[in-house]
Specification:
Layout lengths: L9 E5 L1 H6 L21 H6 L4 E7 L1 E2 L8 E2 L4 H20 L3 E3 L3 H9 L7 E8 L10 H7 L1 E5 L9 E3 L2 E5 L1 H13 L2 E3 L5 H10 L4 E2 L18 H9 L4 E3 L14 H15 L4 E3 L22 H10 L4 H19 L2
Parallel strand pairs: 1-2, 2-6, 3-4, 5-6, 6-7, 7-10, 10-11, 12-13
Antiparallel strand pairs: 8-9
């Protein structure tokens, strides 16, 4: 908390549909988590954490398990499209049940943020994580109509459009066409999983805002292209973007459990090159990891206030802490949404 005020949070990255549809997780996103659960999130847990808005993903995995409803086959845009639509349908169903409200516009965003009713639905901005469900660039308009407002063109293994952090390669010609389609629609670019080459190509292909919804500082985790170099952080800042701190312990520290101090170190490094106005939360809670992989002082959404308290004690001003909690995401979304 800051100056005794109850904290409210915006999370830049939650894989809600993926977790709900994954048969291995057996997750009822609409119910409270079972006692002693290793999971962090369900709709009730997010509500209890005073987290009224999140960027919620349509995540598809190239070459995943055949039983994974989010997996698709290489060279098969139809299977990727089907996996993406399956998750979109889940969000639409959650909206019909009153659990979420899909935020499509600035007016939607403000309505959700100002609604303090405890029973209000979670506001979600739909983020497509890997663009392969878009079968061709012309189809981006259909996804925009459905509510997609942010897209990362590749996951780690890359996509038909560009390389990913575990698959080298820049933008393909079809990827450049997709960038043009996004810019014409006003879809926000997410660079979190792009290869270094794809990131550089994206900078050259667009003059629009770029965010990284759930990435940390490569200076502290230099072994992987999954994290952002100081140069990339500065480039995102130059586009008035934002970087979301990922709370997966292995993205915060190596060879030991991550701590709150590691979170502070990443925020401080990212703020040094992107400024504190462009660093926020992108927790990725349960995105391939469990509660045991989150710094123990935080644990899950219910422990996020420990992070803001630590930032304040570390010398961040009250304005900077509020920015990290929600104001930075609010600013970028208000400026990006139609």
């Amino acid at each position: 908390m800051v100056h005794g005020a109850p904290s409210r949070w915006i999370d830049g990255h939650l894989d809600l549909a993926y977790l709900a549809l994954d048969p291995n997780s057996k997750r009822d996103m609409f119910a409270p988590l079972p006692e002693h659960s290793t999971a962090c999130i369900s709709f009730p847990s997010l509500k209890a954490a005073r987290l009224p808005i999140a960027l919620a993903t349509i995540f598809t995995e190239l070459g995943g398990s055949p039983t994974d409803p989010c997996a698709y086959h290489a060279g098969d845009p139809e299977s990727a499209h089907a996996a993406g639509v399956r998750q979109l349908d889940w969000y639409l169903n959650a909206q019909s049940r009153g659990a979420v409200r899909i935020i499509k516009s600035r007016a939607d965003l403000d309505a959700v943020w100002t609604d303090t009713n405890p029973s209000a639905p979670l506001g979600i901005v739909i983020l497509m994580e890997c663009a392969d469900p878009i079968r061709r660039p012309e189809e981006a308009a259909w996804w925009f109509e459905q509510g997609v407002r942010v897209v990362g063109m590749a996951w780690g293994r890359g996509s038909r459009y560009c390389g990913g952090n575990a698959m080298p390669g820049g933008l393909q010609p079809i990827g450049r066409a997709l960038v043009e389609a996004f810019d014409a629609l006003g879809i926000l670019h997410d660079a979190s999983h792009l290869s270094r080459a794809a990131f550089d190509d994206l900078l050259n292909a667009t003059d629009q805002r770029i965010v990284a919804t759930h990435s940390n500082a490569a200076a502290l985790m230099p072994h992987s292209e999954r994290h952002l170099t100081d140069v990339q952080l500065a480039a995102i800042a130059s586009r008035d973007g934002i970087v979301g701190l990922n709370l997966f312990g292995k993205f915060l520290a190596t060879d030991r459990p991550a701590t709150l101090r590691d979170c502070l170190a990443h925020v401080e490094r990212m703020a040094e090159f992107a400024t504190s106005k462009r660093v926020a939360l992108g927790s990725d809670f349960d995105g391939g990891f469990t509660r045991q992989d989150v710094p123990a002082e935080i644990g899950g959404p219910e422990g996020l206030d420990a992070l803001s308290t630590a930032l304040a004690r570390h010398g961040f001003s009250a304005t900077e802490v509020l920015g990290f909690q929600h104001d930075n995401w609010l600013r970028v979304l208000r400026q990006s949404l139609p």
